[in-house]
Structure to design on (597 residues):
């Protein structure tokens, strides 16, 4: 994830990686040797030190720079200034993330349902899963080039649509604008949603449907009273995950155009600018980014745990 | 339980009517997924620019000249070489860090598991763009010499790949009975070194290979950090070459995409086979 969309073939599906799905939880393979004062944990230090130096220290560095006043004191001024001075970037980022996450949840959810319930071609489910694995990790330069060739100014679909009398670019469409980025992001959002919801849809037991039918419920009552309530935590969780995925996506947008006005691209822009002026702006923006991510991801993890009650 | 009471599956017989909706969703999503690939392939491999393309030209002028131009650009090999070197270094660093740590967690300190696991999830909360800001905030003032080297990217790439590599190796260790293997090996008189290299490693081959592949694809595609730190890696070259020759750059992207997908597909296949044998599930994907 990005989370997704970071590297060309970004993170390999965030899916269970985040919640420690079924693979992670298992009993700690009953291994501890009879209690002896053990120094074995010292062996973990190199790894922890590595993460500390190359992940935590840089993050603290960002937060410190974001919260430091020019005179060396502590201030939230930089953070609030970043919000006001980069208002458009924040609005664009939030809007793009909200809309692309919403599209991802709806289409991804439906697609997962279609794949989970289809029985006729046996390979269909495998095909959808495999394609989702590829799509969810799509991003960066390759994805940008794909969409240039599709709906860029001289893209094939642009030409095709114009042939039928509608001029996309004449009507203000642009890959670098929010509508364009939403189109592109949808490409990895839908597959990611499929990957996170398939297990939840599999968790809907046939017996519930039968029970509802035996008690005289229509399919509609089943969905309204049983199906959707059970799926709700998964769907909201999926939405949060997708939001975070889009919000943090840098590579794709940057490869489309360096002028794209969204928060991650602004961070990179100010980082590359004259650093000597000591501006705290990129660091304040990055701190906001971490805050957004932490909220969305924490929400995702909790909802996911909640949803797993039904997946046993 | 259902099966005992009612052996015949009683899912509503799916009439073709009830399948119209799902089928439509499958077709729409399928098209959305495949069309950009097709247009990318056409643009890469057909020497007719899109505005001039007509129906009767569909089968004309297909060629590999775009990719040839990209490959023969003087910037291509250095960029590819750098990314390959970074990938190899990142793979080595990742294995060196994760294998001992995870074996230790499994064998000696299972209590540390939640901590290690949480640590490997942090890269999701701190996305690449925030990490690179951190690099600027922390390493620029304190260790500028470090950032001047292209290989300063290696530890950060290892961090980016951590959630996936951790998962892959962890699943591998879980799929074998480490404790029994160690006990057997030790009681037959093997020392720790022998146990590690002659017994454990061969059994973890699949985990090592898959985590290496994952690392490789992450490094070969990483754009955020390289772009912001102005390192001329392979994706950066593709990106820059686009303004020079769009077709060549797109062709390069096409082949890179096909290669990475093939590699990951193979890995997915092998991991699934192992899981089926060992009765475990790996959810790296």
């Amino acid at each position: 994830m990005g989370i997704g969309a970071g590297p060309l073939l970004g993170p390999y599906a965030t899916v269970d990686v985040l919640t420690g799905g079924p693979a992670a939880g298992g009993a700690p393979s009953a291994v501890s040797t009879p209690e002896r004062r053990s120094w074995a944990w010292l062996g973990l230090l190199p790894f922890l030190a590595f993460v500390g130096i190359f992940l935590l220290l840089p993050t603290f560095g960002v937060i410190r720079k974001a919260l430091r006043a020019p005179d060396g004191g502590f201030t939230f001024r930089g953070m609030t200034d970043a919000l006001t001075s980069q208002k458009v970037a924040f609005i664009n980022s939030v809007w793009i993330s909200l809309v692309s996450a919403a599209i991802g949840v709806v289409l991804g959810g439906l697609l997962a349902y279609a794949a989970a319930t289809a029985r006729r071609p046996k390979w269909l489910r495998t095909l959808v899963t495999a394609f989702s694995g590829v799509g969810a990790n799509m991003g960066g330069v390759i994805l940008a080039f794909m969409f240039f060739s599709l709906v860029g100014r001289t893209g094939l679909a642009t030409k095709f649509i114009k042939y039928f009398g509608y001029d996309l670019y004449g009507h203000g469409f642009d890959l670098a604008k929010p509508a364009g980025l939403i189109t592109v992001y949808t490409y990895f959002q839908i597959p990611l949603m499929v990957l996170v919801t398939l297990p939840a849809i599999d968790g809907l037991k046939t017996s519930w449907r039968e029970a509802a039918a035996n008690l005289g419920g229509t399919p509609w009552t089943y969905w309204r009273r049983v199906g959707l309530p059970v799926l709700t935590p998964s769907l909201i969780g999926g939405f949060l995950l997708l939001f975070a995925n889009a919000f943090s996506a840098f590579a794709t947008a940057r490869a489309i155009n360096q002028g794209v006005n969204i928060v991650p691209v602004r961070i990179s822009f100010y980082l590359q600018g004259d650093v000597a002026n000591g501006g705290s702006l990129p660091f304040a923006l990055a701190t906001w980014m971490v805050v957004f991510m932490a909220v969305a991801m924490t929400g995702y993890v909790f909802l996911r745990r909640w949803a797993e009650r039904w997946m046993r | 339980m259902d099966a005992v009471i009612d052996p015949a599956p009683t899912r509503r017989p799916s009439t073709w009517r009830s399948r119209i909706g799902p089928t439509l969703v499958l077709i729409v999503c399928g098209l959305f997924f495949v069309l950009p690939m097709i247009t990318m392939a056409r643009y890469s491999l057909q020497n007719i620019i899109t505005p001039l393309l007509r129906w009767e030209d569909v089968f004309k002028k297909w060629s590999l000249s775009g990719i040839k131009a990209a490959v023969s650009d003087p910037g291509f090999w250095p960029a590819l070489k750098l990314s390959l070197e970074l990938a190899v270094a990142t793979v080595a660093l990742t294995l060196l860090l994760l294998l001992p740590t995870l074996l230790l967690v499994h064998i000696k300190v299972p209590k540390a598991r939640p901590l290690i696991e949480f640590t490997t999830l942090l890269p999701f909360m701190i996305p690449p763009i925030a990490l690179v800001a951190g690099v600027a905030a922390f390493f620029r003032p304190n260790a500028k010499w470090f950032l001047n080297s292209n290989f300063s990217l290696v530890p950060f790439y290892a961090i980016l790949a951590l959630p996936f590599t951790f998962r892959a190796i962890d699943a591998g260790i879980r799929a074998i009975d480490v404790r029994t293997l160690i006990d057997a090996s030790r009681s037959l008189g093997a020392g720790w070194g022998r146990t590690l290299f002659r017994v454990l490693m061969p059994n973890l081959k699949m985990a090592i290979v898959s985590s290496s592949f994952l690392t490789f694809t992450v490094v070969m595609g990483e754009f955020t950090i390289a772009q912001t730190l102005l390192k001329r890696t392979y994706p950066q070259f593709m990106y820059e070459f686009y303004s020079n020759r769009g077709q060549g750059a797109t062709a390069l992207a096409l082949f890179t995409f096909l290669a990475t997908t093939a590699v990951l597909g193979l890995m997915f296949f092998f991991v699934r086979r192992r899981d089926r044998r060992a009765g475990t599930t790996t959810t790296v994907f």
In short: Chain B has 14 helices and no strands. Residues 1-11 of chain B have pLDDT under 50 and may be disordered.
